[in-house]
């Protein structure tokens, strides 16, 4: 860790979304500075998540212009006021969680960071931090909104509540995926499903988040983890992350295959990690009596899925939505699982793009050409 005070330039490069037709464009904007309770990081990498795609395509409303990117790794370069008891220090390598708890609301007080009201009201709806303003401005002084911390930039202001120190030996680039793909997987398994040792599991859609659900479910003792997707290459790849069987739902009947694999019972827990009606149906179809279905996929705007009333009632099945995780408790746990080699975050990152190539990276994600996770590596 360097003890020298880093030099922070006045301007930086960032991928800005101003117009849905033009997509992400790299611009030089003012370097943000942290206010109370916040930390400035020099970004080393930022993961490309499907949730950004919903915003880039205009399917999920968000104020523009904006800097997206909510899954970051970086080095702390400046601490704002009121951060002296956080344990964070200049020079530290950190991972940033997308769900940035305010730390003050009633849900945060109860430890339920994932329900933080100001996070939704201020950041997700307005693109600002908890004083109601953004930290990002164009060279002309025009405000630019932040989706989470606005990680697709050379520097990023992150509330201290959303940062976890990363020990030496954890890769500074691929650890970017810990703050969303892995943390969401952890939240789904540990909080949403609360998996018990020996339970059987199915994961519908094994992209960046789904692959993490697979490996974290195994780490929590699932006896079987059945991966269901429509892409054979993704199904093949997820075997290395602990999938015990795979089903291509384009060519196979997912319910029939899951019943064959589970003595006709179905799985105790099914996860849905895409956010479309048909994958919800598949996740419900493969569920055992008394089972829990945990959806984490976000719909492209307002979407609904059908749930069979009598089956849900008579078979005592539950649907337990899961958003992110309890960042302050769970992000350090996820970093620890990564550091101890219990989850494999490094091999999950299969593609690296430069900041200038961010738009091309999302295009690849949209075209389903990314296995695991792609990241923007700021050193490229
Ligand atoms: N709940 C949360 O906190 C949270 C956090 C992050 C992402 N998300 C959401 O999770 C979803 C997944 O994100 P991601 O980054 O892993 O996406 P991704 O693009 O990496 O993965 C999507 C996967 O779905 C598969 N797929 C496509 N069509 C399918 C179908 N009909 N049946 C089965 N599989 C199909 C693809 O082959 C791919 O493997 C998105 O909706 C995203 O917005 C939610
Ligand atoms: Zn995400
Ligand atoms: Zn809160």
UniProtKB/TrEMBL annotation:
<feature type="domain" description="Enoyl reductase (ER)">
    <location>
        <begin position="23"/>
        <end position="376"/>
    </location>
</feature>
<dbReference type="InterPro" id="IPR013149">
    <property type="entry name" value="ADH-like_C"/>
</dbReference>
<comment type="similarity">
    <text>Belongs to the zinc-containing alcohol dehydrogenase family.</text>
</comment>
<keyword id="KW-0479">Metal-binding</keyword>
<keyword id="KW-0560">Oxidoreductase</keyword>
<dbReference type="Pfam" id="PF00107">
    <property type="entry name" value="ADH_zinc_N"/>
</dbReference>
<dbReference type="InterPro" id="IPR011032">
    <property type="entry name" value="GroES-like_sf"/>
</dbReference>
<dbReference type="InterPro" id="IPR036291">
    <property type="entry name" value="NAD(P)-bd_dom_sf"/>
</dbReference>
<dbReference type="InterPro" id="IPR013154">
    <property type="entry name" value="ADH-like_N"/>
</dbReference>
<dbReference type="InterPro" id="IPR020843">
    <property type="entry name" value="ER"/>
</dbReference>
<keyword id="KW-0862">Zinc</keyword>
<dbReference type="GO" id="GO:0016491">
    <property type="term" value="F:oxidoreductase activity"/>
</dbReference>
<protein>
    <submittedName>
        <fullName>Alcohol dehydrogenase</fullName>
    </submittedName>
</protein>
<dbReference type="GO" id="GO:0046872">
    <property type="term" value="F:metal ion binding"/>
</dbReference>
<dbReference type="Pfam" id="PF08240">
    <property type="entry name" value="ADH_N"/>
</dbReference>
